């Protein structure tokens, strides 16, 4: 059965982005897309993904705001929201949903077959899945940057077991298994 992976990059002090949702600190760092937890290896094993509405809005008003830009993911994408936009960004299989976590993961598994599922984020979406007991592993690229404040990687408690630690150029690449809550 497919696994639900929360795959993200975070600062050393546990933030996904600055308080203003900035990622300049992250984009200035070096990593190998074919290295440990690199994009190419992860993307090849993903069959469906889920993100929150804030992440979707950031993508379509930021990196994808240029005319003619297309959706960057080949996999079907669920966007957790209470309000769907009039039109999804072109070029992708984007599904807006307000369903519960178990329903969304069931739909994603049906679409992905044996491939893994990716929780893109942000932290609130990962927390929503984690609290429902649906996240199997966290795959975190830890950046050598301390932000001091920002959008947290995971805003809920979690028990984790370290599975692997590696290096990808500027990043520590760490895989964790999610353990049951006591």
What letter string, H or E per element, gives the SSE order?
Answer: EEHHEHEEHEHEEEE
Give the proportion of residues in helices: 10-25%
Q: Compute the number of helices.
A: 5
The major sheet is characterized as: 8 strands, mixed
N-to-C terminal Cα separation, in Å?
25 Å
Structural class: alpha/beta
Shape: globular
Count of extended strands: 10
Numbering strands along the chain, what is their spatial order in the largest sheet?
Answer: 5-4-3-6-1-7-10-9
Tell me the Rg in angstroms.
16 Å
Mean pLDDT: 95
Fraction in beta strands:
25-35%
Low-confidence stretches: none
Highlighted features:
eight-stranded mixed sheet; 182 residues; alpha/beta; 10 strands
Write the layout of secondary structure elements.
Blueprint: E1 4-11, E2 15-17, H1 24-27, H2 39-45, E3 46-52, H3 53-61, E4 77-80, E5 94-97, H4 101-112, E6 116-121, H5 123-131, E7 137-143, E8 151-152, E9 159-168, E10 171-179
Parallel strand pairs: 1-6, 1-7, 3-4, 3-6, 4-5
Antiparallel strand pairs: 2-8, 7-10, 9-10
What does this structure look like?
The protein has helices at residues 24-27, 39-45, 53-61, 101-112, 123-131; strands spanning 4-11, 15-17, 46-52, 77-80, 94-97, 116-121, 137-143, 151-152, 159-168, 171-179. It is an alpha/beta fold and 182 residues long. The strands form 2 sheets. Strands 5-4-3-6-1-7-10-9 form an 8-stranded mixed beta sheet. Helix 3 (53-61) links the parallel strand 3 and strand 4. The longest helix has 12 residues, at 101-112. The model has no long low-confidence stretch (mean pLDDT 95).
